[in-house]
Amino acid sequence: MPGLSIGDTLPDLEVETTHGKLKLHDYVGDSNFTIIFSHPGDFTPVCTTELGLMAAYADKFAERGVKLLGVSADDVQSHNEWIKDIEAYNKGHKVNYPIAADPTRHIIKQLNMVDPDEKDSSGQQTPSRALHIVGADKKIKLSFLYPASTGRNMDEVLRVVDSLHKASHHKIATPANWKPGDPVVISPTVSNQEAKQMFPQGYQTAHLPSGKDYMRFTNLHDQY
After folding, report:
1. Which CATH superfamily is domain 170-218 in?
2. Where along the chain is the active site annotated (predicted)?
3. Which of 10, 35, 36, 47 is catalytic?
4. What pLDDT digit, counting tens, does each position of 72-104 carry?
5. Mean pLDDT, to the nearest integer, of 7-16?
């Protein structure tokens, strides 16, 4: 559905990929998260670096129970030829995740991954550099949208996966510039009494001019 955003249910599309046909809901299954990421086109420089880094980070995502699915407007044959370049340029890291074909632009329209300005040589709309992180409940948990000129930072994608995981298991949020191992903040909806029970490891409260105790920090050591 156009306008697909955080909180919306992923459309259960059937897509043709480099791994054969698959339905999106079946592919997501009960995995912790699935990352669906679109690219303006095959045999383009920034996309080649991005898909290569996705391949290089695949083990890190797999450790977290995360699946990957690329989307590009070209056909499967083109994808398979392009993969050879991606692997060669990115030190041989294998592209083991599927890449969906979308020559009719149906998928990118349904997933809200259309660049509003760019068109290809035939006048068709092109994919934006978009990324959705989908939960096991098939809902969009987070989205990135970059212009074609700016490649993604895979460390940031990994970081937000870790943040989403912790927030889905505890009543916490991750502060600005948080990275795994840093303290997290306890949700304001949790009372101090509840916080003592939920976080037996304890927590620290920042002293502020307002005198309010909403800045409460704790350390979490749970892993995937």
Report:
1. Antioxidant, Horf6; Chain A, domain2 (3.30.1020.10)
2. 47 (cysteine sulfenic acid (-soh) intermediate)
3. 47
4. 989 999 999 999 999 999 999 999 999 999 999
5. 97
